[in-house]
């Protein structure tokens, strides 16, 4: 009789899970397009940018707009520092500065970018946006996660986390997209309902870190391809390149170090 009662309670709790509503939570930044063009009017013809090398770069998150449990601020700062390191290693970058979040909001972005351009003397802006969706649903599979503590039953919860991080390099004079790199990650999990919030918070931060790692690798490749494009100076390319006084892309510092290493090796062998 006791086993029958336990089975009935289990089925009742499970049926609540089966017919319970799906809950979706978002933690996201404003759309990059909406940030650049808050009035919704995207120009059909964006004039060609002229880049003066080496570039002075600003780095910031697109302003946050959305609910849900926030990403760990330490992870967000770690991502910016990783992106900064990738840019700093390129000889065609003169400087890259992280712009404080308080200088940006999701309204009046055009004026903000021009003010930041003047304040920090920037040429381009690396804008980072992310979108993370947590789908949580109590369904038939939650029977698998039933936990018995004394005479109590706790229904389980199943959830999926999807994460996208995107970095776009924008010319500040024309708002032209120069290149972009992205990282993605997805995962799923489950557990007792009482601990579900803690479980998917861990997934959110872990997936954000994994997407961040993918972004760093893709950014490295994107920066290399962008450098090759700038170096080519193709007359048919709509991105024009000028050099600041005393700067040349003919040889970079890594090639210089390689040549110095070869000279040193030759001197040792000949000596």
Characterise the protein shown here.
With 271 residues, the protein is an alpha/beta fold. It has one domain. Helices cover 39% and strands 29% of the residues. It is built from six helices and ten strands. It has helices at 2-19, 32-36, 73-88, 109-120, 196-232, 253-270, and strands at residues 23-28, 50-53, 55-61, 93-98, 124-137, 147-149, 152-154, 156-171, 177-192, 240-243. Strands 1, 3, 4, 5, 8 and 9 form a six-stranded mixed sheet that branches. α3 links the parallel β3 (55-61) and β4 (93-98). The radius of gyration is 26 Å and the shape is globular.
Task: Tell me briefly what this model is.
By secondary structure, the chain is of the alpha/beta class.
